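From the thread on structure requests for the teaching lab: each student submitted one protein with a one-line request. Submission from student K.M.:

"Model Efflux transporter periplasmic adaptor subunit from Candidatus Brocadia carolinensis, tokens only."
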Amino acid sequence: MPLFHIIIRSFILGITVLAISCSPGSKGKQIITASVPVTVAVAEQKDVPIQIRTIGNVEAYSTVLVKTRVEGELSRVYFKEGQEVRKGDLLFMIDPRPFKALLTQFEANLARDTAQMKKAEADVRRYEELIKSGVVSKQEYDQYRANFEAFSATVKADEAAVVNARLQLGYCHIRSPINGRIGRLEVNQGNMVKDIDTILVTINQTKPIYVSFYLPEQGLSEVRRYMAQKSLKVEAIVPNDEINPVTGTLTFINNEVNESTGTILLKALFSNEDESLWPRQFVNVILTLKTQPGAVVIPSHAIQVGQEGNYVFVVMPDFTVESRPVVLGNSFNQETVIAKGIQPGEKVVIDGQFQLVHGSKVEIKNNLEPLAQNSSDFQSRKDDNDE
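Reply posted by the TA:
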């Protein structure tokens, strides 16, 4: 058989097979209309929090820069770097010997001048009797009176000098003014401290502790309104530790808006007993304003974005899907509030949407469980597939 005839027959056979596969009764139609396996979740109605999410920075409740009030040798350090200290704990000692010697000198001066004052006082009393008898002149009496008053003034000056010397000696023992945690030691033992403005160490009070964050000025009135009604809960989430948020309370709204950024500073207070928050640490912040009752919620994975906006594939009773536009509300914990478009109890597709179009036949491959479980199951399956 000529090669030309073989080519023609092969071409006609291919056309015939293609026509049969595309005919109404062919097996090809079964492939096109085969059910698509999908994972679904049931839309739930429940109370959900209305929240604002942002980034915050941890700040010490109080910070003290420890300095010396006297000059001298730093003779002793009583702590280790990073140690937790209590108010009144001894931190440093400046060599007290020069100050003890100075105090002893002032005390000796006080004793000497006190003795002289007492003698001058006795002379004044004696001359008071003599001047009444006319034995001495008034000029002599006035002289002894002046001596007594001079010694009295000297004694007061000596007493002040003694008090000041005792204060200087007391300043040799530097104690912690707050409860907190010691930072890096700036001046080592044995060094001379000549500048009283030299910082020896920094103490940060971490129990309690602040988290500061900024919000756009447009949300200020809403936050103030809810804050006037009740204490607002603030959660701080340390990166890589999302399952253990720390809970605090909003305590401060700054009295002015930052003109350059259009934001306003807020602070929340946390007890921080376990010191999970650390000064200058960045954290994720969730400010809860109120709770929205009876909201319709679906997993965020179910939401698709098209040319006309957000939509969701809803499984109908005949196991076909309907592409339905939705209006979204707030999102939280991988779930999204549906303000319009979904009713409680409806089934939405959360996995397998890329194979679907409006009217597609589906096969549900998961047991319908509570929404939170479905959402977590989907995430775990997605992670497994990614691996």
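TA comment: Confidence is low (pLDDT under 50) at residues 1-32, 370-387. The domain at 96-171 is CATH 1.10.287.470 (Helix Hairpins).
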